[in-house]
Design brief:
The protein contains five helices and 26 strands. The chain is mostly beta strands. The protein has two domains: 230 residues, Cathepsin D, subunit A, domain 1 (Beta Barrel); 181 residues, Acid Proteases (Cathepsin D, subunit A, domain 1, Beta Barrel), CATH 2.40.70.10. The strands form three sheets. Strands 20-19-14-15-24-16-23 form a seven-stranded mixed beta sheet. It has a six-stranded mixed barrel with strand order 4-5-10-6-9-8. A hairpin with a 3-residue loop joins strand 21 and strand 22. The protein is globular, with a radius of gyration of 21 Å. Bound molecules: 2-acetamido-2-deoxy-beta-D-glucopyranose (NAG) (4 copies). One 2-acetamido-2-deoxy-beta-D-glucopyranose (NAG) binds next to loops.
Length: 450
């Protein structure tokens, strides 16, 4: 195994930071499917119960690491509702926990035996939870008695946790004394939530429990890149986490997954998020000038637009609201107009086949939803998965490149398989101009040592 991950001991503990309002909201999926079924006179679908979610979390899908030259780690990850989950091991004896990879928040927190309150604590009689007061590799068990810090997320989830230093095994290597926030309270708004989040906030944020603060110094290239496998469906809530739904690469981006150059967009330096300027959205012949900040957030499933913008886009698509989701008429999908996002002068287009997902095997749902209460515009995983994306910590840039694999045919419920010949020009998802000055240095061949 490469020793590229043996990290210098470096811990900068800041004062208790203010609560963070990251965003990773997902409307109530089970409720929406039940409502769609009721409206159509169908049998109600099975809901994801808390028990099923916990059962899934008992057997976290393994994250297989393939490491290459320069300490690049290419790691397979699981998926749920388009977002990605990495399984890491924490403490001694090691406990495996699948945690969501989230560019929309800064903190690494994991469920723990310290969890005493909220809807998300595990049933401790059945589960071997990570216990930072008993782990043999914890640096200072007394740290677990500190006053918890609080994190709030855009979907209403609240976490309270204490920062401890313990061994974390990720990407095939052990990081000693990694600061991790051990959950003491996990409160989720409706459906059962995550067992942890790997916050991957941008370089200008500082957090007492940041994983990448330390990882980034260990690789030649200070980047985290994401590949979402579009042939793997992750919207069936009864399955829990779906294995092999994508890949996260730490270090040099995986050249096997993208083609042509990255298009790099600078992030807004005045924001503490991975956010960029969204100049405009064009739908059909109409261009909506926006000039707003938008988050590029792997931890949010859908695309959140402000009310006025959303209403315009949705009117064109004909979506009907059902529990915060917008149901589309499956028979009309092929006539949806292409939608183009202009980020800092560069266009990215989603054609009709990239504007919906299927719930419960039957209901077609828009990838767009409305942001309420003045929350931010978010390009979530439903957008990001159409590209190979790379978050560059050294240069404060986000790169998008074309995927090597084609989007698979989706079956439109009630209709025959998508007929590509009717799909109009299936041109590239977006035309990436050559950004010579920003092009990657000749990418190192990624030697895969499984
Ligand atoms: C490491 O990566 C850099 C930049 O990606 C590349 O130029 C160099 O050849 C790589 N070195 C090795 C040993 O692969
Ligand atoms: C950052 O600046 C942009 C314009 O340059 C503005 O739209 C945005 O609201 C600012 N964000 C914050 C968090 O101040
Ligand atoms: C960016 O992050 C900060 C703190 O993490 C948060 O308060 C703010 O609302 C975020 N901005 C957006 C646009 O989400
Ligand atoms: C969907 O569109 C078709 C074709 O226009 C129409 O016949 C059908 O009634 C619509 N279904 C619903 C549920 O609106």
């Amino acid at each position: 195994m490469t020793s590229g991950l043996l990290l210098p001991l470096l811990l900068v503990l800041l004062g208790t930071p203010a609560p963070v309002a990251a965003d990773r909201g997902l409307p109530d999926i089970s409720g929406a499917v039940a409502a769609m079924a009721a409206a159509a006179g169908d049998l109600p679908p099975p809901a994801l119960t808390a028990a099923a979610a916990r059962a899934a979390s008992l057997a976290p899908p393994p994250s297989v690491v393939r490491a290459g030259a320069n300490g690049t780690a290419v790691i397979s990850v699981a998926g749920s509702f388009h977002t990605l989950f990495l399984t890491l091991q924490v403490g001694t004896p090691a406990v495996a926990i699948s945690a969501q990879l989230d560019t929309g928040s800064p903190t690494l927190w994991l469920s723990s035996a310290l969890c005493k309150a909220g809807s998300g604590c595990r049933d401790k009689s059945k589960v071997s939870a990570w216990d930072p007061t008993k782990s043999r590799s914890v640096a200072d068990p007394a740290a677990a008695l500190a006053k918890p810090i609080q994190r709030r997320y855009g979907d209403g989830s609240t976490i309270e946790c204490v920062v401890v230093e313990d061994a974390v095994r990720v990407a095939g290597a052990t990081i000693e004394r990694q600061p991790v926030c051990a959950a003491t309270l996990m409160d989720f708004p409706s459906s059962p939530g995550e067992m942890g989040i790997i916050g991957l906030g941008p370089p200008q944020t500082q957090d007492p429990a940041s994983l990448f603060d330390r990882l980034r110094t260990s690789f030649v290239e200070s980047k985290v890149s994401f590949y979402f496998d579009r042939s793997v469906g992750t919207f069936d809530s009864s399955l829990g986490l779906v294995p092999n739904a994508g890949e996260v690469t730490i270090g040099t981006p995986n050249t096997a997954r993208y083609k042509d150059d990255f298009l790099w967009v600078p992030i807004l330096k005045n924001s503490s998020n991975w956010s960029v300027k969204l100049d405009s959205i064009t739908i059909g012949q109409t261009r909506l000038t926006l000039g707003v900040e938008t988050l590029l957030d792997t931890g949010t499933s859908l695309i959140f637009l402000d009310s006025a913008t959303f209403d315009y886009v949705n009117a064109d698509m004909g979506g009907k609201v059902v529990n915060g989701l917008y149901q589309l008429n499956c028979t009309k999908l092929k006539s949806l107009s292409p939608i183009t996002f202009v980020l800092k002068g560069v266009s990215f287009t989603l054609t009709w086949d990239k504007q919906f997902f299927v719930l419960g095997g039957k209901y077609c749902v828009s990838i767009f939803t409305k942001q309420t209460n003045g929350g931010p515009t978010i390009l979530g995983a439903s957008f990001l998965r159409q590209f190979y994306t790379s978050f560059d910590y050294a240069a404060s840039l986000i790169g998008l490149a074309q995927l090597v694999d084609n989007a698979p045919d989706q079956t439109i419920p009630g209709i025959s398989k998508m007929d590509r010949s009717h799909a109009g020009p299936r041109a590239r998802a977006h035309a990436l101009p050559r950004a010579a000055s920003l092009a990657l240095a000749a990418a190192a061949a990624v030697v895969l040592l499984v």
